[in-house]
Design a protein that fits this description.
337 residues; Rossmann fold; 12 helices; 42% helix; globular
Length: 337
């Protein structure tokens, strides 16, 4: 079986990426949300990378490059790591299925009973899951290498993918996205995006320059500025003075803030736009603060990059709160005719 390849954009790239989705993703106006934020109705547009394949989200662009390199190296199994609700792990499982490889996912953190979210999709996609509870950081990385060694001992050729798909190779996916935005919104003054493992912002900065990209830290890595700068440099671009706002992390990665919950409700109730509590909810909350503080002003065209993550909502405690509130509201407001 063969898989369509995308045109090479950089002559230093030796492996052309695999086309896993449909490009370009839409750039949709969000006039009601813009007004609610205090912008003009024509100021805010949403880059719909939540509409990619594999359950949606930004990981698909990265995997087009990462999986192509894994196939070129003769890999038989993709190994990915992350939290129990990792979007990257879910997308890796789907990409592996698309190209006929196995996937093994090494997942840390708490898996909440009755809130399957991405875990249900991991199982549906046939991935092998190694759940290791509270392990994170270096301990999780060491376990990933142990799993890879076990696979090698069994005759497999594992390709260990980087955390969040963010590496010099994975970040090229968002250099591709930057090129799309240059065509769709060449006059955009601000491109706002959640910062997790750093590759998404790095690719956008490499393609659009540091002055136009505002990253909202979600707490996934301890030094997001240094990580993004290193990934930008790996693209042969200058990071300059990165715009990274770190005021939306709250109590930590994956922990919902009141501001993110409010942002999620605002997006849903003004545009029917569904965000997640880990990344895009915090990113929109950060955009709201930037408008309130005046670093993003009325009349400046602004693009919000929707990086997906909706399946993870259904594995988050906030989903139960929302469902309880909906049922409570229905009971209180229901009338029989």
């Amino acid at each position: 079986m063969s898989f369509p390849r995308l045109p090479r954009q950089d002559q230093s790239v030796t492996v052309s990426p695999i086309r896993f989705s449909h490009w370009p993703t839409p750039l949709d106006p969000a006039p009601r949300l813009a007004t609610a934020l205090g912008l003009g109705p024509d100021d805010l547009w949403v880059k719909r990378d939540d509409l990619t394949d594999f359950g949606g989200g930004n990981k698909v662009r990265k995997l087009e490059h990462l999986v192509a390199e894994a196939l070129a190296a003769g890999a038989t199994v993709l190994v990915a790591s992350g939290t129990a609700q990792s979007n990257h792990a879910r997308a890796t499982a789907a990409a592996a299925a698309r190209v006929g490889l196995r996937a093994v996912l090494v997942l840390g953190g708490t898996a909440l009973a009755g809130r399957p979210g991405n875990l249900a999709l991991d199982g549906l996609l046939g991935a092998g899951v190694v759940h290791v509870g509270g392990l994170a950081g270096g301990a999780l990385d060491r376990l990933v290498e142990e799993v890879a060694d076990q696979l090698r001992a069994g005759g497999e050729v594992p390709a260990v993918l980087p955390f969040g798909g963010s590496s010099a190779v994975g970040a090229r996916g968002y250099v591709d996205c930057a090129a799309e935005l240059d065509q769709q919104a060449p006059d955009a003054a601000h491109v706002v995006v959640a910062v997790g493992s750093g590759g998404t912002m790095a690719g956008l900065v490499a393609g659009l320059g540091p002055d136009r990209v505002l990253g909202i830290d979600t707490g996934a890595v301890p030094d997001p500025v240094g990580r993004v700068a290193a990934l930008v440099a790996a693209q042969g671009a200058g990071a300059g003075r990165l715009r990274v706002h770190r005021d939306q992390v709250g109590e930590g990665y994956g922990l919902l803030t009141a501001a993110a919950a409010d942002a999620m409700r605002m997006a849903a109730r003004t545009e029917g736009l569904l965000l997640d509590p880990v990344y895009t909810g915090k990113a929109l909350a950060g955009l709201a603060v930037a408008v309130a503080e005046g670093s993003i002003r009325r009349g400046e065209r602004t693009v919000f990059v929707h990086t997906g993550g909706l399946p993870g909502l259904f594995g988050h405690a906030f989903a139960s709160e929302l469902a309880a509130a909906a049922l409570g509201g229905a009971a209180e407001g229901a009338t029989l005719t």
